[in-house]
Design a protein that fits this description.
Blueprint lengths: L7 H13 L49 E8 L7 E3 L3 E3 L9 E5 L8 E2 L18 E8 L5 E5 L7 E3 L8 E3 L3 E6 L16 H16 L5 E4 L4 H12 L20 E5 L6 H10 L11 E3 L3 H15 L3 H7 L6 H9 L3 H4 L4 H13 L1
Antiparallel strand pairs: 1-6, 1-10, 2-9, 3-8, 4-7, 4-10, 5-6, 11-12, 12-13
Length: 363
């Protein structure tokens, strides 16, 4: 190797100095026949920091845009950053019930950031180094034209994903003032979604509502679909503590647990009234008191019936729920479960309350 080769010798020397704590000048000013290191060392992802690399990750979910436009996101290495970036992984996700053929372009001279910033703060994967990359990740739901040279195009079936980079030889270098951009090839189509696990009767209609909101420029984002029992219990405890902005059903009583409902937010949120009206016109269930919640007709009532059956068939179920509630709250909830009238609750004696506590212990 050439003497003082900046890339090969410089990085090797830097790694040796950091590894062994060597101070002063380079320990190996040249690598040739007279310098023969015989130290067996492990070099991999865990030692990239010693070579001056930083590892970062980010997720860009882009909602559908207006008719005739594309959704996209861009990874840009700003001019003057002084770093060379290597893209090691790109995963493209298709929308529910809609296939896409997204493409990736490369611009040797970047056209700059897009309209919306994707959060990359504190995305470092190694806390020994910087936690925020110098690269910019931005997105835009309304793109009129494709910029750059197309270097890759995928065929992504509905509800599936495609991994772009499979080997280290396919990794993508990104120098300052250059960028890679991912475009949805389907017009007015988002680049990601979370409606996969809904009841089949609901999934297609949900995807259609999300698509309609996207075409209207409302930037729809699905925030919840199917929930596990434990997830519902956690949300219910937050609701009881006053930390939830919308109503939450007790675990076992929520339409989300059966795949019969989804939550969606829009920008502006006032547009939920129009979305709810549309959903009702399509035959779905919607209530302005829980404006983000969209469900199959009668789903909440069916979920309540299912929850009552569950509470009978699983005697220990309510004990688990009550044990997670604030101590001052559980007696009134137990009164409701046992069917004690509201007027009678005020006259419960200490002895009766002790009996109720014994009932809870026996559940």
């Amino acid at each position: 190797m050439a003497r003082f080769n900046e890339i090969l010798v410089g990085r090797f020397n830097r790694a040796l100095q950091k590894t062994f704590g060597i101070k002063g000048g380079p320990p190996s000013p040249q690598l040739s026949t007279e310098v023969q290191p015989n130290v067996n060392m492990l070099w991999g992802a865990e030692t990239q920091y010693l070579e001056g690399w930083g590892n970062f990750a980010a997720v860009a979910g882009v909602a559908a845009g207006a008719a005739g436009t594309r959704a996209s996101f861009r990874i840009d290495n700003p001019k003057g950053s002084g770093v060379v970036a290597i893209i090691e992984k790109i995963l493209l996700l298709a929308q529910p019930a809609v296939a896409d053929t997204p493409l990736i372009t490369y611009s040797i001279l970047s056209s700059g950031d897009q309209a919306n910033t994707v959060v990359t703060v504190n995305t470092g994967l190694d806390n020994r180094g910087p936690q925020t990359p110098q690269l910019h990740v931005t997105s835009q739901a309304i793109v009129q034209s494709i910029l750059g040279v197309t270097i890759y195009q995928a065929n992504v079936a509905a509800n599936t994903n495609v991994e772009v980079i499979l080997t280290e030889h396919q990794e993508l270098p990104l120098l300052p003032n250059s960028s890679y951009t991912v475009y949805s090839n389907a017009l007015a189509q988002a680049l990601s979604g979370v409606l996969n696990d809904l009841d089949p009767e609901l999934a297609d209609a949900a995807a259609a509502l999300v698509d309609a909101a996207g075409r209207a420029g409302l930037q729809p984002r699905v925030t919840s679909t199917v929930r596990t029992r434990s997830e519902q219990a956690r949300l219910y405890r937050r609701f009881l503590a006053g930390a939830a902005g919308y109503p939450v059903a007790p675990p076992g009583f929520s339409a989300h647990e059966y795949g019969w409902a989804f939550d969606m937010v829009l920008s502006p949120m006032e547009a939920l009234a129009d979305a709810g009206y549309t959903w009702q016109q399509w035959g779905g269930g919607w209530n302005p008191r829980d404006a983000i919640h969209f469900e199959l007709p009668g789903a909440s009532e069916r979920a309540k019936q299912q929850g009552q059956l569950t509470s009978i068939e699983e005697p220990g179920f309510w004990a688990n729920v009550i044990s997670g509630l604030p101590i001052a709250f559980w007696p009134s909830m137990l009164f409701q479960i046992l069917g004690i009238p509201t007027a009678a609750r005020k006259t419960v004696t200490p002895a009766q309350e002790r009996e109720l506590r014994q009932i809870v212990k026996g559940l």
